[in-house]
Amino acid sequence: MSYLTLLGTGACQGVPSPFCTCELCSFARRELGRERRRRTGTLINGELLIDFGPDTSNALRDFGVDEMKIKTLCVTHSHEDHFQPLDLLWSAMTPTLPLDFISNQAVKKMYDEAYIKVNGKYGERAKSQISWYEGVPGRELVSGKYRILPVHATHMVTLECALNYLVTCPDGKKVLILNDTGWWEEASFEFVKGAMADAVVIELSCGIHPGEDVKRQYHLGSKAAMEFITRLKEENSLKPDAVCVTTHISHVPQVTQSGYEEYFAGTGIIAGYDGLRLEF
Fold first, then answer.
1. pLDDT tier at 127 (50, 70, 90 boundaries)?
2. Helices (H) and strands (E) in the chain, counts
3. How buried is residue 11: exposed, middle or buried, by Cβ count under 10 Å (0-12/13-18/19+)?
4. How far apart are CA 59 and CA 55, in angstroms?
């Protein structure tokens, strides 16, 4: 049995958003717990990490994760809420374990530029055990006992090739990670057709309100996300009884965790929250 842990389920600003006085952020400051949303990150089997945003290091500590077991990092795109390289830069100066780092070229450029800024042109890179591999849509990579298929997302169509990931675990279980996706182009649906994934983590950036719930350009609303899941099941990309959970939830729609739980009741979709662990 494989499992995933949601280290963060918030969008770019998190919840509560710094200095924001809106009703939801004020509520989250009082309630904490499931109302607090760190920036999005997902950990698979305690070994494979998807995205490394500004809250990831603290989330690993908050949820008691043994980060020395993490062998693979897959980054979806170069937006700072999904990748901030600072905590990776010190790996060149201190004893670290090997880490496979998979991303597109834009994320690698972001890492290199930050590295040079902190460590100088040459720095101590020779000591680093980070090994970078380019994620190319449709070209499967192997990291340890995991198979990783990058899939083109439509989140940043004109700027870079944002990636989603289909991860096959050592036990054969499969999970689709759709952190920032938008509605896929047909080629992406073809890449995963017939995969029969056991779980999907899907973004819910645009919320559940009428008008916003149908949005599908760059990000998904709730109805669009449900339609996305339905199509994956119809094409046998996702098993009929697959675990489905939401992430990348913005504070802008002003919906509490209980509001999302009520909305998705009876749909087979779980309203994600930070620290949630799910077996699949």
1. low
2. 7, 14
3. buried
4. 6
DSSP string, 217-274: SSS--HHHHHHHHHHHHHTTSEEEEEEEEEE-B-STT---HHHHHHHHTTTTEE---T
Contacts of 51 (CB under 8 A, 6+ apart): 40, 41, 42, 74, 75, 76, 82, 83, 179
The DSSP output letter for 167 is E
pLDDT tens column, 230-248: 999 999 999 999 999 999 9
Q: Rounded to an integer, what distance in angstroms lies between the CA atom of residue 248 and that of residue 151?
A: 18
126 pLDDT above the threshold of 70: no
Residue 111: CB partners within 8 Å, gap ≥ 6? 83, 85, 88, 101, 103, 132
pLDDT in tens, 38-95: 999 999 999 999 999 999 999 999 999 999 999 999 999 999 999 999 888 766 556 5
State the alpha helices, DSSP H only, in 32-141. 56-62, 86-89, 105-119
* Whole-number Å distance between alpha carbons of 77 and 155: 9
- Dist. CA 5–CA 275, nearest whole Å: 6
As beta bridge partners, residue 247 has 203
| Sheet bearing 163-168, strands edge to edge | 141-143, 146-152, 163-168, 174-178, 197-203, 238-247, 269-270
Q: Which residues pair with 44 in a beta bridge?
A: 4, 48
Threshold 0.85, pTM exceeds:
yes
d(CA 42, CA 179): 9
